[in-house]
Amino acid sequence: MYEEEEEYFSEREFNEDLNAFNAMYRKDDFRFMDSDRLEALIDHFIISSNYKKAKWGVEMALSHFPFNTMFLLRKAQILSANGELKEALEILNELEKMDPTNLELVLTKASSFSQLRDSKNAIRYFNLALELADDMEKDEIYLDLAMEYNNVKDYKSAVKILKRAIAENPKNEVAVYEIAFCYDQLGEYKKAIKCFKDYIDENPYSFTAWYNLANAYLKVDNFEKAIWAYDYSIIINDDFPPAYFNLGNAYLSSSKPRKALECFEKCLEVEGEDALILSYMGECYEDLGELNLAMNCYNRSAILNPQLPEAWLGMGIVNDLEGKAEEAIKLVTKAIDLAPDNASFYHVLAGILEKEERMEDALEVYEKGVKLDDTNEDLALDYLKFLAGEAPYLVESIYESNPGFHNMPELDLIRVYAYYQNQEYTNAYLILDNIINTDADLAKKLFLHYPEAKNISGFRDRIEN
């Protein structure tokens, strides 16, 4: 937006003018200076965010050059930077009447509207700026426009703009990150995967694209592909800790805790002791059955960051595995106190209480967890199984009252068994027949949840024939 001062002067000449200006500023005594030189000094102060000197300089400039529109524009820009947006827009509106196709003016007006959170007008002026800008000037404008669409949660429009940005400048990797953010907000991970794969076809050495492709695969639980893409991203750039951290997550989710540990240890080499990384390492050791090492990691994590709920949860789980139920309950409750909206934590606590046969307490905790998130399939499954064992007559009403349960086919198996336990055999067999017709392999899982169901001929004959 602003011209560099070297375009007008040698460094020595510029410094002489700067010293002269500073002397006048200190005395509040402005003497005449050539307008081009004065403009370069004002630009220097704006670039340096020294708005106090910039404002004084532009006021002095306008007292000598009252019809110089560039100084008026600079005044508007300074006012805008200082948050005096109404005053800035008044000047900009007058300047726009004289020169409506001035790109710098249009961008300043767009930025002022953005600061006012008037995204509608900001979008209008950023779009106008794109019409006025040449190809070399469009990169930042695309990003600014996309951010305005993000501000109004119009992520689809933001994606369209960012794709245009990448089409015109494939090296604009900031736009690649922003597209990843938009697809994440939309939950359109399959579209994100296609977008990044198409980009990689043309830009195979883009670390940013490989990394975001891996993140998208991770979001759809395609851990094998995520690991593949993270590996490529690390080959291109082996000095980016988040790639190792996410690769560790992918290995952990793939039941490869040893490989995950290698990744998390690499993160520690680069980042130093980090509470979150240590808590993930604790989970790896926990999966490996090395409970002393797991507890050590969780303890170190809690010491580094006592407010990290995952550390307390991990210690609680280890205590539960070691048969120390009361201590486990205290620690998991501490985790819940730190993260009261995390339904998974309630799931862990309910499971411990259930094992301890504290059924009323377990029921209360299950209910709290499901109320927070009825789309958590593991929680929903264990909650309905708990009800089927304690009060099978409640299963159907609880199922119906939680819409999130209706997208979980495996819950139908619990309904089948609950109906049978409640001696409603017709309903049990109707649901089971429907499962068999839809997904025969899923129906076989009834025997995994309830091995005793193999002894019931109505179930056995239907599933095994």
TrEMBL record:
What Gene3D superfamilies does the annotation carry? Tetratricopeptide repeat domain
InterPro entries, A to Z: TPR-like_helical_dom_sf (IPR011990), TPR_rpt (IPR019734)
UniProt keyword annotations, A-Z: TPR repeat
- What Pfam families does this protein map onto? ANAPC3 (PF12895), TPR_1 (PF00515), TPR_19 (PF14559), TPR_8 (PF13181)
- At the top level, the lineage of the source is Bacteria
Q: Where are the TPR repeats?
A: 139-172, 173-206, 207-240, 241-274, 275-308, 309-342, 343-376
Name listed for the protein in its UniProt record: Tetratricopeptide repeat-containing protein
UniProt source species: Lishizhenia tianjinensis
